[in-house]
Amino acid sequence: MLAILLLLLAAALVCGRLGVWQIDRAYERANLAAQQEAAEAAATGPAALGELVAPQASFPGELVGRQTWVEGEWEPDGQTLVAGRTLDGVEGYLVLTPLRVTDDGTGGASWAGLSGAPVLPVVRGWVESPTPDAAALDVPDGEVRVEGWLQASESTLRTGDAPANPGGPPLTQDIASSHLANVWDGPIYTGYVVLTGSDPAQPAAAEGGPAPLPRPVLEGGSDVNLQNFFYALQWWVFGLFAFSLWIRLVRDEMAGGRRETRRRADRTDDPVGRGIAGLPS
């Protein structure tokens, strides 16, 4: 039984290790797929915003991380900071600025039936303090061409209101178009842009401007490769089966030993082997 135990435990350990290897492969393949997707998105170059999504239209999930360009004028009076956002392990704030769109590549056709020119939420970068330097809040005057990554609007499910921010811009918890539509005038997009560059340029991070952000990804879209994940589950099931098989063998052996003990006890109590009538069997 000890030899069988060692054999089955070895089999269970091998199955467990193969399961861990499959999990590693699942995340490795997901990361490679995300890198390839980002490389392909960068290679295609920015597309006009109006060719991808119209103001107030539903935002397709496949556009997350897509490069785009749009022209408009900053409205710094509507600028706000998004609290509780982390960059490189440091918690800080996103600088969210409305851009009044003047050209999205459609010549205004995308908002022809709306009440006026739409406003686009643009995350211009990240700052550590809720009262950043003036350079972080400074934007170029006049028309500007903005390029960046598209991201879907967030929900307003976070609990609690943003605290007051004396000496700095207003704070918000989310980048939610449903909320911003009540703060900014005019039609609004159901997504936002994470800025990668603009012409004229905003102050650089080295000059006190907001720090640039990485490309957004669709949450949960490339966390793990499901095929490798289920392979891992199969190996772990095999390992549990090997261990449960040994437990079953031990229980059967113990049950057999108890039966043998009872038979020996019966022979001891009835040494001549008499039957139930008291006669020799």
Automatic annotation (TrEMBL):
The chain crosses the membrane at residues 229-249. InterPro entries: Surf1/Shy1, Surf1/Surf4. It is a multi-pass membrane protein. It is found in: Cell membrane; Membrane. Signal peptide: none annotated. GO terms for cellular component: plasma membrane. Residues 257-281 are annotated as: Disordered. Keywords: Cell membrane, Membrane, Transmembrane, Transmembrane helix. Belongs to the SURF1 family. This is SURF1-like protein. It comes from Isoptericola jiangsuensis. The lineage of its organism: Bacteria, Bacillati, Actinomycetota, Actinomycetes, Micrococcales.
